[in-house]
Amino acid sequence: MTATLPAAAIDARAQAAYRWACAQLGLRGAEFAPASADASFRRYFRLTAGGRTWIVMDAPPPQEDCRPFVHVARLLRAAGVHAPEVLGQDLADGFLLLTDLGTQTYLEVLDEDNADLLFADAVAALIRWQRASRPDVLPPYDEALLRRELALFPDWYLARHLGLRLEGAARLAWDAVCDRLVAAALAQPRVYVHRDYMPRNLMRATPNPGVLDFQDAVYGPLAYDPICLFKDAFLSWPETRVADWLRDYWERARAAGLPVSTLARFLRDANWIGVQRHLKVLGIFARLNERDGKPRYLADTPRFVRYVVEAASRYAELEPLLRLFEKHVLPKVAR
Fold first, then answer.
1. pLDDT by residue (tens digit) across 55-111?
2. Helices (H), the chain
3. Nearest-CA neighbor of 209 among 98, 115, 99, 83?
4. Distance CA 163, CA 151 (A)
5. How many CB atoms lie within 10 A of CB 250?
6. CA 136 from chain center: how many Å?
């Protein structure tokens, strides 16, 4: 078998990754094609030979570090979650050889009819992951990280994308909202947090789901991953359906012995940590456009604006954030 590697289409790093993966598997040649890419510097290729497939990750140093991926993959699999097995690694060059979890993401197959079933599988896997949690194994989702993420919103979405700098009373109001969001996050029960547990990173697989893009996992707020699953970056659901799914998660988490509080407190925790995430994502999507030349993510920013407004309108403590959006953000999004 000869390699499918057109020199004009694939760069030198991809060719090096291909040769390395073939050597790991003892292959003289194989088909090699892009499998996916994400918002970081990481890329994924699918290697095919003899009716079998593997995934090759290209994570170029010094921009990327493969070690967290390897570490978290091991934790997920130990918890009984269907994550890729690391079959080979070259940490110095930034190459990993992984088992292939398939070609269909939840984002590609979810619809009104199958959402309950697919999300039930996703919740079951999430609860297994959370039940395996132990302190001092993953980096903490601490105050410093929460504040760095929140700062992405005024720095990139407001200042760089909308041309608005918060000053005076507006800045004081923003700082007060941040204090409340951070305090609420730190008061939650703490578990392993994937941080991007959303349909784009879940594969329809056997067992279902396959879980990807977990290298940024931390130890932090219990409600983070559930709200991330149902308030997706690229797919929206009616509020009543989201509430039903959150209630189902809460019931199953409580039955599994996870440290959930009352349903009312859990829903508040989910909404508040959801606001923190939505603000962070608005900043990240703006940064991808302004700094990295990746404008396609901007098309989904109105979804997150809507998420923030919906959540902030429910809580008097978040009214300053609602006013900020109504005055400065909604008019520009509408245009």
1. 999 999 989 999 999 999 999 999 999 999 999 999 999 999 999 999 999 999 999
2. 12-25, 67-78, 106-109, 115-131, 143-152, 168-187, 224-230, 239-255, 263-290, 301-312, 319-324, 330-334
3. 83
4. 15
5. 21
6. 21
**CA nearest 105: which of 18, 172, 38, 192?**
38
Residue 297: what residue type?
Y
Which tens digit of pLDDT belongs to each residue from 200-223?
A: 999 999 999 999 999 999 999 999
All CATH 3.30.200.20 domain ranges of the chain, comma separated, are 12-99
pTM over cut 0.90: yes
The CATH number of the structural domain formed by 106-334 is 3.90.1200.10
In single-letter form, the type of residue at position 96 comes to: L
Q: Which CATH superfamily is domain 12-99 in?
A: Phosphorylase Kinase; domain 1 (3.30.200.20)
Contact 55, 46 (CB under 8 A): yes
305 contact partners, CB below 8 Å, separation of at least 6 = 282, 325, 329, 330, 333
User: Residues of CATH 3.90.1200.10 domain(s) within the chain?
Assistant: 106-334
Q: How many CA within 13 A on the CB side of residue 62?
A: 0
Structure tokens at 49: 């030979």
Eight-class DSSP state of 28: S
In this structure, what token pair is assigned to residue 118?
């697919």
